């Protein structure tokens, strides 16, 4: 994509949108969305924690 630093916000949006349309379509995901996020263990709540 061309350098958009000199363009105004609206022109920048237009140029980004046109360049996005020119790109090849992305292949569909072969894994469920969000499955690669690190899993966080839930902390014990209230008096059980102490």
Count of β-strands: 0
Distance between the termini: 56 Å
Mean pLDDT: 84
Envelope shape: elongated
Instruction: State the secondary-structure class.
Output: mainly alpha
% residues in beta strands: under 5%
How is the biggest beta sheet arranged? none
Fraction of residues in helices? Answer: 25-40%
Low-confidence parts, pLDDT < 50 over ≥5 residues?
none
Tally of helical runs: 1
Please trace the helix and strand order, writing H or E for each element. Answer: H
Radius of gyration: 22 Å
Structural key phrases:
mainly alpha, elongated
Q: How does this structure look, described?
A:
The longest helix has 14 residues, at 9-22. The model has no long low-confidence stretch (mean pLDDT 84). This protein has one helix at residues 9-22. The protein is mainly alpha-helical and 50 residues long. The protein is elongated, with a radius of gyration of 22 Å.
């Amino acid at each position: 994509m061309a350098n958009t630093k000199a363009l105004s916000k609206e022109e920048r949006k237009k140029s980004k949108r046109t360049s996005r349309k020119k790109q090849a379509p992305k292949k569909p995901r072969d894994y469920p969305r969000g499955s690669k996020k690190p899993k966080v263990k839930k902390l014990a709540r209230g008096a059980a924690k102490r």
